[in-house]
Specification:
Largest interface: A-B, 55 and 54 residues
CATH topology of the largest domain in chain A: Rossmann fold
Distance between the termini of chain A: 65 Å
CATH class of the largest domain in chain A: Alpha Beta
Structural class of chain A: alpha/beta
Radius of gyration of chain A: 25 Å
Strand order of the largest sheet of chain A: 2-1-3-4-5-11
CATH architecture of the largest domain in chain A: 3-Layer(aba) Sandwich
Number of domains of chain A: 3
Strand content of chain A: 15-25%
Number of strands of chain A: 12
Oligomer: homodimer
Mean pLDDT of chain A: 93
DNA sequence: TTGTATGCGTTATCAC
DNA sequence: GTGATAACGCATACAA
């Protein structure tokens, strides 16, 4: 076996297999006709020589892209610092690998989604995964990008979306609280303009209404810091509270920290729940009762759909299930 | 301004600017001569038409790659599930974005690093960032990849590396423990075959020796679960222990959890420290005293070096500084 | 079913 | 300084 210094090309394979490049191309690309005999000789030659298709050349010829762009919308580039973004990128990078593609990460200013035009003009973009999109951002998606962009979170008629079932998860959590005897249940929400937060809040309100209980919400922002402040506010406004639903695990952790600091027993006096089931939710004291958020699965689905050309339903939802631990 | 349905190519720009494609290419690629006049007309035409270079075509012509591959070595593909990997990929994706490139994530079986040959034959690979590499893996790096691969962690004569200053961080932590009066200091280590763990352990042993104190180590594996077990072991073997150094924050958190469960006050009876300064280290009770681990900076440096062609010193080290909180 | 020829968008070589 | 022109590696009408 001769090891050349230069990676083998399709021409090398064709020559070695005794066929034309077009035939080799057909069998290796899995498109078009080829006799079993030819097919066999080509594949044999390919893996004997260690052939790896050149993605660049292939993309150039086919007009396809070479990378998936993860676009995190937000007020500032700081949105990229959210660990959640990294998890999405990580999952996307895994679906890209076998395709010879890669993932790029960009910030998209919510106020000025004009950068989308630039993406549309970039032939290297094989797909786009939108994060934290708003209606404004969704409307700014150029026609040229249609079918190649998928949003995680809110969607639109033009942009399919995939997300966790926030409503279902919230129902599971609130239902658990109710089932365990809690009746004065407050919620620390997320920013009102975030859809994922909105769905949870709506589900909470609906359940409370159906149970004939008053809805008590305090606005937060997904952070533990804000959770602490919110806890104090809840205690002040409703001293008789016996449960707090956090919009996220971080929020819940902040709430718990403040509550205990104020001498309130958790879950003795007040039960607290989170949402996301982050790794550390299991390690805190008390361990956090929460609902799952399969970020990797969601991101994988989004990336796959974006690269597949968007032939996907308008909304794909992943279930969230209750994780019962100690805090509630 | 006419908006064509097809993204503009270099030919379009050249025509619009009244020059040849060669000239347009030179000024846009920033290589070669061009008169100020021509340069001006070309750049003007380019951003008037919203020109974006086709990375695939460029890569094909230049022979450069289209993506950066993050390769996480390990016994099983489960290594990819470590949040640390996602952080590296996220940072790498950010450095790739402005270059029109992307990041792919792959698992590299430590036992069988043969997949490296395949990467070497792949023209799409512009660079490789190695994670959790071992000497065996490093030795398997093909010559063809030299200069395009950078390792985060251990390095070799052929493969430059970049990492946090484990020794320095450990010294800072142990020094703090000593300065605050602790004398019976135990350490929960990582797997002995992991270099980053080794450097911390070595630093710990050296400091203990220099202080005339006995080194007391228990092996762990970076996880909280193992930290719990290790805490029990420490307590059993050295009932008089007054401090435990965790190899990681997760480990330390596990240690603390077990200690408190056993009625040991932290930091009253036993001080506990971690390493990494993960986001939640600040939120636990008690808040964790630890040392920083600038993963994003490290990954950014590694990705940049890998894509730049590896002209970088054999070892770049990022400082780790003490973060003093409550647990020690 | 197979092969020939052409195009994909850029860069680089080399005359001018 | 500038402009033709030949690669770069692959896919695909189209002809055979």
């Amino acid at each position: 076996m001769t090891v050349s210094d230069r990676p083998p090309t399709l021409a090398d394979i064709a020559r070695d297999a005794g066929v034309s490049v077009s035939t080799a191309s057909r069998v290796l690309a899995g498109t078009g006709y080829a006799s079993p005999a030819a097919r066999g000789r080509v594949t044999a030659a390919a893996d004997r020589l260690g052939y790896v298709p050149d993605v660049a050349a292939r993309a150039l010829a086919r007009g396809s892209g070479v990378r998936l762009v993860v676009l995190a919308a937000g007020a500032s580039a700081a949105v990229l610092d959210d660990p959640y973004v990294d998890r999405v990128v990580g999952a996307a990078a895994r679906v890209c690998a076998p395709l010879g593609m890669g993932v790029a990460l960009n910030w998209l200013p919510s106020r000025n989604p004009g950068d989308l035009r630039r993406l549309a003009a970039d032939r290297g973009v094989g797909g786009v995964v939108l994060l934290n999109a708003t209606a404004r951002v969704l409307d700014a998606v150029p026609t040229a990008l249609r079918g190649r962009v998928v949003s995680i979170g809110i969607g639109s008629p033009q942009v399919p979306s995939v997300d966790v079932d926030n409503a279902g998860g919230t129902e599971a959590v609130v239902g658990h609280l109710y089932a365990t005897g809690r009746r004065r249940i407050a919620m620390v929400t997320g920013p009102h303009w975030m859809p994922c937060s909105g769905r949870s809040v709506t589900a909470y309100r609906r359940m409370m209404r159906e149970a004939g209980l008053p809805a008590r919400t305090v606005s937060g922002d997904f952070t533990a810091r804000r959770g602490r402040v919110a806890a104090r506010e809840v205690l002040t406004r409703w001293p008789d509270v016996d449960a707090v639903v956090g919009i996220s695990d971080a929020t819940a952790l902040g709430v718990i920290d403040r509550l205990r600091g104020d001498g309130v027993q958790v879950p003795g006096d007040v039960a607290v729940t989170g949402f996301d089931d982050i790794p550390l939710a299991a390690m805190t004291t008390p361990a956090l009762t929460t609902a799952t958020h399969p970020v990797a699965e969601i991101a994988t689905a989004a990336a796959t759909a974006a690269l597949a050309g968007g032939r996907v339903g308008p909304l794909t939802t992943f279930p969230s299930r209750l994780v019962r631990r100690v805090s509630a």
